What does this fold into?
Amino acid sequence: MPASSAPSPVLASLAGGREVRARMLICLVTSLVVVWLKSPLALGWLAAWATALALSTTPLRLLAKVYALAAALFLLSLGCGWLQAQWSPALRQSGWTVFLTPFLRVAVLLGLTLSVALGARPTELLAALKGLRLPLFIHLPLVVMIRLVPSLISDLRQIADSLRLKGVRLNPLSLLASPLLTSRLLFAPLVFRVLRSAEELAVAAELKGLGQGARPSAWRGARAGWRDGLLLGLALAVLVGSFWLETGAPAARAW
Amino acid sequence: MPPSATPKPVPRRPYWQPRELILVGAFAALTKVAGVVIALAGGGMNPMSLALKNATATILLVVLLLKAPKFGVLTLYVVSQSIFSLLLLGGSLMLLPGLLPAGILCDQLIRGLGGYQRVWAVLVGVGVFDLLSKAIALGFSFLAFREDPRLFIMPAIFIGLGYLGSLLGLAGGLKFVKELRHAGLIRA
Amino acid sequence: MIRVHDLTYTYPFQERPALAGVNLTVEPGQVALLAGASGCGKSTLLRAVNGLIPHYHQGRRRGRVLIAGREVGELALGDISRVVGSLFQDPEQQFFALGVAEEVAFGLECRGLAPSLIERRVTACLERFGLIHLAGASVLELSEGEKQRLALAAALALEPRVLVLDEPTANLDPEAVADLARTLGELKRAGLTMLIADHRLHWLEGLADRVCLLRDGQVAAQGGLEVLADDALRRQLGLRATRLEDRRDALPGLPISCALGLEVRGLAFAHRRRPPLFEAFDLVLPRGQVMALLGPNGSGKTTLARLLAGLETRRQGHFRLDQSPVAPNRLRERAGLVFQNADHHLHLSSLERELIFSLPRGLRASGRGRMAELVRRLRLDGLEQRHPQSLSGGQKQRLAIAATLMKDPALLILDEPTSGLDGAGLRGLAELLRQRAEEGAAVLVITHDLELIEAACDGGLTLARPGEAAGPTQARRLSA
It folds into this structure.
């Protein structure tokens, strides 16, 4: 092995990511807060924030589709609620805000989901996880999940191609007509692939010394940068604002 | 390797071996991917896809417990899935305080019924876990919809359909385990 | 450096030993080759040397394996892997990280090395193996040769004294194989001891010092490279050729037209949000011939195969089969495509079900005769009730081919079918392809394998990467 050389400038650019850890923390805290909040104003404020976060990583069209789907499901719920109210007058509720609050909660969580799920490349997610220094029994399954998802999707495409060549149609109708057979045809090969992949990864892990007693070190785990700080600061301001709207604002009291 | 004068003490192997942790992660990944694919192939959130998604998740959990037959693997799987959802998919932290004891309880149940090598013990454990996790999901939905309980009917229907799927998954799991034995991939 | 003494090993739940009384010595700085038919015990012997047996694979083991004078059974796997590095056939399956630099670092992190030391070693390894410009790339975007180099860099980052390689050239094209041979030569000169198991033998000339030929878990012959000069012995043991001629440039090109076969005119295709892969592309695949589809990674071979099989519908161009226009869905009925990974073809719980299911619904009831014929031709007799996942790699591949042949496709396409095949398997496959062509099919095989090209191909087409200049034998991508 040649003598050590100076670190490559290319390697220096590997660290960092799209504020992944900050987004994770924001998701964690907001998912707790959103259940406690009741005021549509406060939740609307949070939903606007979550939408802005989502827009920084998600195409507008996709975001619009997701929100439209959520709205459609909610309208369905509303329809069911109205039917119930016809049955039992006791179930009648006054005020449309009681409908808005649950919808806004879901909108907040959806926006956060998209901002994290689509906001980082898998390599950035892995770097962020490494930086959290979780114990191995939590860290390793998460790493494997992130590592395997792209491979599984690629395998699934080939499996689907094989089925198409055998004349099997993969669409909602075929799933409805033969749900058990269609799922079996799609997923049984994937289960076998996963069993093999897991075995090979496990062999690689053992041969690389994982789980042999030494405490793993973390090279190039995601380091917090000024962008993380900025995002967290903004998130804190938004959360404080939502608390104020929930408890202190005159408009909130009017609701 | 220089021969040592005194034998080196063999380091204590951790409880969780990399092989088991990797299996948990692999099956958790597969469950997530399968859920998304079923939703997309099924045209969205309809009763069939909901039931099928849950059935598939149950079958995969049964297979995992038989391939990694160790106390705590169900809990670890649940925790991994939850943390993944929490950190990377914007999921809610509120479910974890319920799922964690449910997982531990069901791991104890499987151990009490004869251990992870017995297919029936695993099926009962997974069945009870599915029931508990759906109850927890119902509780969380109620919290989310508490302002207008009428709206709670939709999540209740979805969760109910999902549980029906889980029950089907137990039957499917039993069948699939027989096939995996036939293929030589499971020795239970 | 490596001493194997009277080693016998049986896997759990098996009756027959995978290795029986094997003796092998590899001196420091030597390169030893393990060769033999599929299933002869090569990989098992490598596992015994790198410590996976007995530490990972339990089972019954007798005899001794010494690495630098220490018995493998008495050391922890972590200690063995400090001295013995491993490289496998499909490196991507063993990558833990998704980034190139992260993958090299992974093993060092597992050892608990300081980040500053990891940084130095990662940089040194990436520079040494020509990967520094790919430090920030995803492992999923690398070519097969780059993946193999990355796996080598990751293994050598741990500074082992011995390297075991299990079929390292299985997925590599001839250029990447030559590159690997050069790199291993440098490592040998630096004093690394190597034990290589491979079906391909030609690239080891000038590299390997010793050869150990295995048959049914026992040593059939051992000695210097002259052991491989015995043609009769090589044939008997199902080995591949030791000398190869690169006929790729000499292959006749595809015809301009044909009376019977597939004609494609003016094909245009691009993946979503990417530049065009094919523009005004013409191709003719005549019935009765076996054609090779060649080209480097990224040149579009697999995409072309999918287009020809009717799997990609968002394309422009005219497709005609036997002089009649044919739409993609109709093409899917008439074409068969065998993927590189046979597991993608196997969906059901027995061979018989798998084969019958491969027929169109209306023909399944009467498909048993065809099934019996294919089972016999592809040497799958007696396995009809076996679960496909319980078969060996070679058997699975033959099953995937049989399943594709059930519908008697007019166009048969195979994607890298010889990866991991021994000599007997390769000759059997070549014979099958020629038979299919003689029976009237148009056969197209995507391959880097010079032996398959020699044995089976009548002509070939070489694709160039988009943007690279196409030579006289390469496909024209733009209209005149």
